[in-house]
């Protein structure tokens, strides 16, 4: 898989992308992630990628022109074809107006060969980029962030961990850990069996998990599971 990320803050991605599962997946050749500075496609000496909104209003708007030029470069001149399903890449832009990213979308995108994520910034992104250049927009929750860098990291993390071979323990992706296209979680414990706090309170592990009776453990986990 190939993932390209467009942002005006490229330096914030490297520490996270080089760490843990994402870093190992890249080292193993499972994914190639490249972060690009959107300002490299600006047309003026000041590397401007934003301007005031037509019609007035607070804040600045991310311009369509540098986004288009960047996508032309990353898609080999097929920026306008991607949204119509004629290009080789899927393009997504973060937006507070976008649908919340979920596990179903992560599974679907993990099967793609080339993904391009554009981290939104400022007050908004020019609607023409959202409407004519992107396959979709997404957010990670009903709140406003200062930029789309964190949502892009979230999406990339959720997608890459689903690639075959990315996880050290493939049991994490077995069907019993999924329900349809949603995830399933339940309480987990590990050593020590007894943990005493400074207030002299002893926190214990549920006895059923120490019993060795797999059928009973499964029933307990079913009773405690949470679907997300």
Describe the protein in words:
The chain has 228 residues and is of the alpha/beta class. The protein has two domains: 2-160, SPOUT methyltransferase, trefoil knot domain (Alpha/beta knot), CATH 3.40.1280.10; 186-227. It has nine helices and 13 strands. The chain has a five-stranded parallel β-sheet with strand order 2-1-6-5-8, with helices on both faces. The two termini are 26 Å apart. The mean pLDDT is 92.
What keyword list fits this structure?
228 residues; alpha/beta; 2 domains; five-stranded parallel β-sheet; three-stranded mixed β-sheet; 9 helices
Strand order of the largest sheet: 2-1-6-5-8
Total number of strands: 13
Rg, alpha carbons: 22 Å
Structural class: alpha/beta
Gross morphology: elongated
The CATH architecture of the largest domain comes to 3-Layer(aba) Sandwich
CATH topology of the largest domain: Alpha/beta knot
**Average pLDDT level:** 92
Question: Could you give me the name of the CATH homologous superfamily of the largest domain?
Answer: SPOUT methyltransferase, trefoil knot domain
Q: Give the H and E element order.
A: EHHEEEHHEHEEHEHEEEEHHE
Oligomer: single chain
Distance between the termini: 26 Å
Query: Helix segment count?
Result: 9
Helix content: 25-40%
Q: Report low-confidence residues grouped into runs of 5 or more.
A: none
